[in-house]
Amino acid sequence: MRVLLDTNVIVSAVTTRGLCADVFRAVLAAHELVTCPRVLQEVRRVLGMKFGVPEQLIEEYLELISQDAILAEPEDQPDLPIEDRDDAAIVAAALSAGAQVLVTGDHELQSLKSIGKVRIISPRAFWEELTGQE
Question: pLDDT digit string (tens) for 51-60?
Answer without folding.
Answer: 999 999 999 9
